[in-house]
Amino acid sequence: MGQQTSDKGIAFGLAINAAVNFSRDILLSTKSSACDALGVSVRIFYGSPATTVENLVEFAKSGIDGLILCGFRRSLAASFVNLAKDLPPVVLGLYAPLEEGEVRRSEKIKTLVFDNNLIGSLAADYFLGHGLLNFAFLGCNVLREKLACEIRFSSFRRRIEEKSSLPATIAKYICGNPSSNEDFWVRDEACVVAWLKSLPHPCGLFVNGEIEAFAILKQCQQLGVDVPRQIEILCVDNSFGFCERASPTISNIHVDFNSTADIAIKMLLSMIGKTERATGAEEVVKLQLEIRDRGSTASGRGYGLVAERAKEYVRTHACEGIGVPDVVRQVGASRRIVEKRVREATGRSVLELIRSVRLEEVRRLLKETDLPISEIMARSGYQINSNLSVIFKGVHGMSMRQYRALNRQRGCAGSRPEGRV
């Protein structure tokens, strides 16, 4: 059942749920970190969702000084503490916040938990960095996730409201029966689909878990919603590998396994009295998190999507008298992001892009029609009292009448003087 990596010094056990990716990844990081800690050996218990507390107690008899549990349900760890009172445990990877009674017991069982406030803030910052102004949150109301879900959404919304430079839309849907842990999708599929159809595009959708994200991705594909061009999807966790198996793959908030392993080992060594423990040290430590970029949010990585929407809107509406604020509203991103992406893509500001399209229309009308200058100005989106004459002469080195006369003489649409805005 166990495998000892060394015959000397301290030995601690690592009990993992082999059915969970998180456990397998933390196993590799923990073994590597333990090898760097002089005199520490590791014995491994490969468990499953069916593992019982009796299995863990039997494993503890193999001669270990402490135990790290990873990927098991919280009740299993609590039962183990009651039966193996002299063996200090560290529990990794609790998504739901600890309840008051569990916090009081933390002197006996040290716990590494996910910071749900940080999870919400990370998701908000990620989408805001993509220039989005429409956001949505899909949560699950089942017993094991209800409180964590509430904390994440509150943090997600608060961060968006604090940092968004323009008014943002934030849609929320919480599904599932709070009295059980049943499959949310079976009960709420029709309602979730209706909610999904109502979301504005482009939108950043933050999903509470990987199974839910996988289901939402499939539903988007059935509805003809383009992921990530219309909806970007980011979820929490990838314990069961749904994120990597999906097409496109799903971006997720991910645990930093190396730092987690180091923290767990130091906590366990302090509990068995082999290292000095800092006075007032917290018994509950929050895991370090990072975002894994995958295909479901790929559109936000560069200037492509924002710039394309801005250029297309300017191309089709520049001569209707629009301004930069109109472009920003249509694109659905902050002005700073729109200006940055457009300049990266075109070398011009949004205003310069609008002027460029308008001037192109002025040139076309001067060459192909006999319309008076005042009519050409109106059709090109300029006011009669605008400074078009000054702009045109600055670009082409001649007045609009001279331009028309010159091109009429040449009789060639392609041989017109060009300039730069």
Question: How does this model look, in words?
Answer:
- 47% of the residues lie in helices and 16% in strands.
- It has helices at 21-36, 53-60, 74-83, 100-104, 116-129, 146-163, 184-198, 210-223, 242-245, 257-271, 304-317, 324-331, 335-346, 350-368, 373-379, 388-396, 400-410, and strands at 10-17, 40-47, 66-70, 89-94, 110-113, 134-140, 169-175, 203-207, 231-236, 251-255, 284-286, 289-292.
- It starts with 9 loop residues before the first strand and ends in an 11-residue tail after the last helix.
- The longest helix is centred in the last third of the chain and has 19 residues, at 350-368.
- By secondary structure, it is of the alpha/beta class.
- The protein contains 17 helices and 12 strands.
